[in-house]
Records
---
Amino acid sequence: MSEAGGERPFLSIGEVLDQLKVDFPDVTISKIRFLESQGLVDPERTPSGYRKFYEGDVARLRWILRQQREHFLPLKVIKDRLEREGEAALDDEMAPTPAPAPAPAAPAAAEPADAPAEEAVRTDRASSPTPRSDGQAAPGGGPDILLSGMSSATFTREELASASGCDEAALADLERYGLLVGKAVGGSSYFDEESLIVARLAAAFARHGVEARHLRMYKTAAEREAGFFQQVVLPGVKQRDPAGRRQSLEALADLVRLGEGLRGSILRQALRPYVDGA
C-alpha cells in the first residue's frame, strides 16, 4: 500500500478509487462515500478531515462491492453479515492473490463472460426450457418458472444502479415508462429482484442503442399476455383446494413456457428474410 501513497501506510479516497476500478469499473467516489454513510466502512480521518484508508478498509470495500455484483445482496444484508462475522467474512479478500495459472486454450465456440447484463440474459435463457419440435414445452421447471429464481432481496435506487450497470438517469427513464416500479417506504423507493433483472437487461439493450421508450412494447405485450392467461386459469388459482391450486399453477407455468416458445418461433420467422439474405 506504500507504493500508491509514498511512505504513507494509508491511501486517500482517490487512490482507493484507482485500485477498485480495476475490478469494479463502475465504482465512484460518491459510491465509496455512500457506503461510508451507511456504516459499512469507517475510515480514519486526518486532523484536517481527510479519509485514511488502510489495507483492511480496501479489502472491506472490495468484499462489499463483490457481494453486490455477484450475489445481488442489499446493503442491509451485507452489513448484518459483517457485524455477525466480523473480519472473518473478508478472509478471501485479505488472502494473497495467487500467481495466475497459464490460461487453457479457449474452445472455438466459447461464449464471452464479461458484463453483468449478459449474465442476466444467459441466466434467463438457461432457465427457459426449449420447446420440442411437436410444439409442447420441454418437461421440468413446474411453477418455478413463475418465480425470478433469485433471493427476495430489495435494493435502494443507489444499490440498483450499482448492481445493474444502469445510471440513475437510465433508471428514471425505466420508471417513467413503467418498466420499473419501486415500493415507497419512509420516503425512499425500494426495488425487488425483478427490477434488477429488468435494469440489467435494459443496460444490455442500451449498448445497442435501444432506449427505455423502445422497451415499452415488451411491457405492453407481456401485460396483454398476462391478462389472457388470467382469464384462462384464474378461477383455478383462486380455489382453496391445495391440489387444485397446484394444478392451476402448473397449467399457468405451462402456458408461460408455451408462450415463450411461440414468441421465439414467430420472431425467428419474421427475421428469417434478413438473416438468410445476410
---
Amino acid sequence: MEILVLEGNIAEVREHNRRLTGRTPGEAYADVLQKLDPLVRCEILCPADRDDVGLDHLARYRGVVITGSALNAYQDIPPVQRQVKLALQIFESGLPFFGSCWGLQVAVVAAGGEVIRNERGREVGYSRAVQLTEAGRGHPMHVGRPQVFDTPAVHSDHVSRLPENAVVTAFNEVSEVQALEIRHGNGVFWGVQYHPEFSLRDIAATLRRYGPRLIKEEGSFQTVDELETYARNLEILEDMPDRKDIAWQYALGADLLDPSRRQVEIRNWLDHCRREALRNAA
C-alpha cells in the first residue's frame, strides 16, 4: 500500500531536526507507518519548498499524511500557501487524508476554517486529559482510545473557527479542537492536534529545539540543565520502559509509554485506507 507523506517543514527546520534526532519529521512519520504495517511503502515529499505535487502524482497513492511543522497556518508566505493549495487538491482527489498538528491546521484552513495563536499558551511535551466527544466515542479514528487520555504534543496555535462539515471528536482544557473529521469536496480528512507518531525520544528532541523559549519566555524550565535532565530521562525511559521511577516522577502512564496506545489514530487510519482501497477496487 503506497502512502504519501508530506513533510510540513522548510529545509532549514528539517535539517535541524535531523541533527537532533538523525532523521527529519517526514522520515520519522514514514518509519511509524511502516512499523505499523510492513506492507506500507512511503514516499516523502516536501511541498513547503516548491510546487511539485499535482493530482496526477497523487493518483498512485492509497492515502496522504501531512506531518507537523514549525510554520503557522495564518502566515501569508509561500511555504504555507503551497501546502494549503495542495490540501485542497488532496480533498478533491478523494484520497484518505490524515494529519498531525500542522497537518490538521492546514486541512482546516484549506476547507475554510481558521487557525490562530492560542492565548492559553503552548502545549509542549504532552496534551493532558484529552477527552473524546460523543461523536469521537463512535468514530473509527479513535477505536481503542479511552474516554480520557494523554498524548504527545507540541503546538502554540489552535483551531478558532471550524470549516463547514467538520465534526470535533476530541478536546481538552487547552484547545477545544484536539481532533476532528472534515468532509470537503470529494474527500474526508481525519486529523489530530497532537502527535501520535511521536516517541519519548521525539518529545525530548522537541524540548531541546524549543529550549531557550521554554526557559526564558514560558517558564517551563528554570535552567538549561533542568531541561536537559528532563530530556535525558525521557530518552532513558524510551530505552527502558520499566523505569517506573521516571514514569512516576513525570506522571507518564501507558497512553504515553506504550506505542500501541500512543499510535491508535494512525493505526486506525491505515485500516481505513485499506478498507477504502478494497471498496474502490470492488
